[in-house]
């Protein structure tokens, strides 16, 4: 796969899905489908003996803003534990937000109850990371895929079974597997079943939480291709969560980089990949496995150590404990997510001292690994 | 690998048209395993377990005996109430069977009861019937309530879980045997006024009641633990995203996954209740004579075991076989249902 894969806005080519009721607010294209502002999720930590008190919070998501247009795919990347899954679960309203606002197709769904959510339930679906935990081992493929239709009382013409068989075909499975159980399928096939389930209600937005991370590398590409086809041809908007930039590169028109509960940089794909400004984005890009190891034209940044605890995040800029450009200002003042001079519109960065918008090699590699630094130091001392 | 550009030329491939999809990307991975349900797999595993099969046969035999007691009585030509020993003069002046080995004969296969002279075979058959029926009722009640309790506790979680959990701890902390012995007479007096004759159903009802009262917690805890882990699973979240109600999630997503626990636990609970019922009757707070009962047979047997062990022998052997078979069956069922033993 390379750059010739065209990923323009899909709505000009996308055929209307065959099913009825598919037209709605998003069909116009380009208009905002999902809008998230100041979204927060704090998980309380209880402590104390006998009398349980709230002793602190895990600030999993702490003020996140982004929007997704109809038919668009937003990639969300960041290290483990930075709050990507929590963001996804907030958007699908599996979790109740602590603060902020989620607007879907013009309606505020931030604190809607299950019953109030019913009308839009069919429009937001999710694909999960673990294909083994996401399918009920006691249900057949048929009942798994038809469950969303059953729950929402949708009766497609020709019956639900016919629709399920169609869906199985769409995701590249044999429709004859209708009566089989999940344990009879491989990881990749299971993930396809998960995709079929997500498509069952003709959604407008799919949150895909690391949908290929648990799969074999050889299978990953197939599933990503399937999702890409789905996105382009059915015009479904995606929030595609991944932990490195390599996978979303081919999938998403826009990329958001998350660090410790906040978005540190967001922008168009080309802008993020070619002209990144935030030091963390630079580090992620240079760590992407796709970077050709023999290619000396690219910068090398080794970022080690752990993400600080979200219970007690660093003051000011949260990245400052691992940033090579950190100065006093970074500890006292939180950098706002703004458009920095020299960036194209829509490319926002949260950094006081942004990097140059280039990914070419530096004079010196940046190594930020305390352990490695110590070893190298010791090696230099002993001749 | 279908490249996206290729798919794009064939833009209609996502609308239901058999052309594109089926031959798709990893059709090669079609599993060789011919579509077997988890239940069929469990049955296959169980069939290979010889001990399990034998135990199942034994257990079914006991259940059949209990169910068909009147039929057996008709075929055998005796019943559990007639005092054959006294009527036919088979007892000596001490009330012990004259014939050796407890009076075993072609007429009375397992001998006759000392003193009253009832037929031991018939006593045992009807005794098994009484004990098994009571134990079955307790099991059904305890499993039903325990599962409901555990489901609610695990599914709702949080504060509800905490308080329900403390309640079940409280119930568990009762000294069971002592409670049964001390409380049964109290419970009986609730139903029977002073000086009134006791109706036949009072004793069984009280036995069922007190045992159930202290019997549902263990399965409740197991179910709670399972539900707690299951409800965090992604397939439950998937159902929730589609808008499933709690009731549907419990019914369709959770219950099918805890059936095996319920089944195994029930097969392990039943023999416990059978022995408990026998124990209570033995101690005199359960079923009263002349109702035939497994536990009462031990009571009589204990009185006469010095002069004649035969009367203790048959109910004892039957009880041992029953309990061992039921427990081994429970283990086999668990092994069969556990996907980890899949081979
Ligand atoms: N239910 C919860 N209760 C308490 N803390 C939670 C809960 N869910 C997530 N967290 C915490 O919130 C933080 C963010 O978690 P999240 O799962 O969103 O990370 P992630 O970016 O998806 O990471 P990964 O790449 O490992 O999936 C973590 O520190 C995690 O421990
Ligand atoms: S604000 Fe400071 S610490 Fe944060 S990324 Fe920019 S330079 Fe580094
Ligand atoms: Mg995650």
From TrEMBL, chain A:
This protein's name: Dipeptide ABC transporter ATP-binding protein
NCBIfam families, per database record: oligo_HPY, PRK11308.1
Region (Disordered): 1-29
Every ABC transporter domain range: 45-285
Species of the source: Actinacidiphila acididurans
Keywords recorded for this protein, A-Z: ATP-binding, Nucleotide-binding, Transport
Family, per entry: Belongs to the ABC transporter superfamily.
GO MF assignments: ATP binding
Listed PROSITE patterns: ABC_TRANSPORTER_1 (PS00211), ABC_TRANSPORTER_2 (PS50893)
TrEMBL record, chain B:
Record's subcellular location: Cell membrane
Transmembrane segments: 51-76, 132-156, 177-195, 201-223, 268-289, 309-330
All residue ranges annotated as the ABC transmembrane type-1 domain in the record: 128-330
Primary location: membrane
SUPFAM superfamilies assigned to the protein according to its UniProt record, in alphabetical order: MetI-like
Keyword Transmembrane helix included in the entry's annotation: yes
Region (Disordered) residue spans: 1-33
Bias (Polar residues): 1-13
Pfam families from the UniProt entry: BPD_transp_1, OppC_N
Keywords associated with the record: Cell membrane, Membrane, Transmembrane, Transmembrane helix, Transport
InterPro entries: BP-dependent_transpt_permease (IPR050366), MetI-like (IPR000515), MetI-like_sf (IPR035906), OppC_N (IPR025966)
CDD domains: TM_PBP2
Claim: Mitochondrion is one of the keywords in the record: no
Membrane topology: Multi-pass membrane protein
PANTHER family: D,D-DIPEPTIDE TRANSPORT SYSTEM PERMEASE PROTEIN DDPC-RELATED, OLIGOPEPTIDE TRANSPORT SYSTEM PERMEASE PROTEIN APPC
Family stated for the protein in its record: Belongs to the binding-protein-dependent transport system permease family.
Name listed for the protein in its UniProt record: ABC transporter permease
Species annotation: Actinacidiphila acididurans
């Amino acid at each position: 796969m390379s750059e010739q894969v065209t990923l323009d806005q899909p709505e000009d080519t996308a055929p209307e899905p065959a099913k009825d009721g598919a037209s709605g607010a998003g069909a116009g294209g380009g208009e905002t489908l999902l809008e998230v502002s100041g979204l927060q999720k704090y998980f309380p930590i209880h402590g104390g003996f006998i009398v349980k008190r709230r002793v602190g919070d895990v600030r999993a998501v702490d003020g996140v803003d982004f929007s997704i247009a109809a038919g668009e795919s937003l990639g969300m990347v960041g290290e483990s534990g930075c709050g990507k899954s929590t963001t996804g679960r907030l958007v699908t309203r599996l979790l109740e937000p602590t603060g902020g606002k989620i607007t879907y197709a013009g309606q505020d769904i931030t604190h809607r109850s299950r019953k109030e959510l019913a009308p839009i339930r069919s429009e937001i679906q999710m694909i999960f990371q673990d294909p083994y935990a996401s399918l009920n081992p006691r249900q057949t493929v048929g009942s798994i895929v038809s469950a969303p239709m059953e729950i929402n009382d949708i009766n497609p013409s020709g019956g639900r079974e016919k629709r399920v068989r169609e869906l199985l075909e769409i995701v590249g499975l044999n429709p004859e597997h209708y009566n089989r159980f999940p344990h009879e399928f491989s990881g990749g096939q299971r993930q396809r079943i998960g995709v079929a389930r997500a498509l069952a209600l003709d959604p407008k937005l799919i949150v895909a939480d690391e949908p290929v991370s648990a799969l074999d590398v050889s299978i990953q590409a197939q599933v990503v291709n399937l999702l890409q086809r789905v996105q382009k041809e059915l015009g479904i908007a995606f929030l595609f969560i991944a932990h490195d930039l390599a996978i979303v590169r081919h999938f998403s028109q826009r990329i958001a980089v998350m660090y410790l509960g906040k978005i540190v940089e967001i922008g168009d794909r080309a802008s993020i990949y070619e002209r990144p400004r935030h030091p963390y984005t630079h580090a992620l890009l240079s760590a992407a496995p796709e970077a050709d190891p023999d290619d000396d034209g690219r910068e090398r940044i080794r970022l080690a150590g752990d993400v600080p605890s979200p219970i007690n995040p660093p003051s000011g800029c949260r990245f400052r404990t691992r940033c090579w450009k950190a100065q006093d200002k970074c500890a006292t003042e939180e950098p706002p997510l703004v458009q920095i001079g020299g960036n194209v519109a829509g490319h926002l960065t949260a950094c006081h001292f942004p990097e140059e918008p280039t990914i070419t090699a530096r004079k010196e590699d940046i190594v930020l690994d305390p352990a490695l630094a110590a070893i190298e130091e010791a090696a230099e001392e002993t001749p | 690998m279908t490249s996206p550009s290729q798919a794009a030329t064939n833009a209609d491939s996502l609308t239901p048209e058999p052309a594109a999809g089926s031959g798709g990307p990893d059709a090669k991975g079609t599993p060789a395993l011919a579509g077997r349900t988890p239940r069929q797999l469990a049955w296959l595993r169980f069939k290979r377990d010889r001990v399990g099969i034998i135990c199942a046969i034994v257990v079914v035999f006991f259940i059949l005996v209990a169910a068909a007691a009147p039929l057996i009585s008709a075929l055998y030509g005796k019943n559990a109430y007639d005092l054959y020993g006294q009527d036919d003069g088979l007892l000596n002046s001490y009330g012990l069977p004259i014939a050796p080995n407890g009076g075993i004969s072609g007429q009375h296969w397992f001998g006759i009861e000392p003193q009253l002279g009832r037929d031991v075979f018939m006593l045992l058959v009807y005794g098994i019937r009484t004990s098994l029926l009571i134990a079955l009722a307790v099991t059904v009640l305890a499993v039903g309530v325990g599962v409901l309790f555990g489901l609610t506790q695990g599914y709702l979680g949080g504060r509800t879980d905490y308080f329900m959990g403390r309640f079940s701890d409280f119930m568990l902390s009762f000294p069971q045997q002592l409670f049964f012995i001390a409380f049964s007479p109290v419970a009986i007096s609730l139903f029977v006024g002073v000086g009134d004759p006791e109706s036949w159903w009072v004793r069984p009802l009280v036995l069922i009641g007190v045992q159930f009262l202290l019997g549902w917690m263990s399965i409740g805890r197991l179910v709670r633990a399972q539900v707690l882990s299951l409800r965090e699973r992604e397939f439950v979240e998937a159902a929730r995203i589609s808008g499933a109600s709690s009731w549907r999630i419990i019914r369709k997503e959770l219950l099918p996954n805890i059936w095996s626990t319920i089944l195994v636990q029930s097969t392990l609970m039943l023999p416990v209740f059978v022995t408990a019922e026998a124990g209570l009757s033995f101690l005199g707070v359960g079923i009263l004579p002349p109702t035939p009962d497994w536990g009462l047979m031990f009571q009589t047997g204990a009185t006469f075991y010095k002069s004649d062990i035969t009367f203790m022998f048959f109910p004892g052997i039957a009880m041992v076989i029953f309990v061992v078979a039921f427990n081994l069956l429970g283990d086999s069922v668990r092994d069969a249902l556990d996907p980890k033993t899949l081979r």
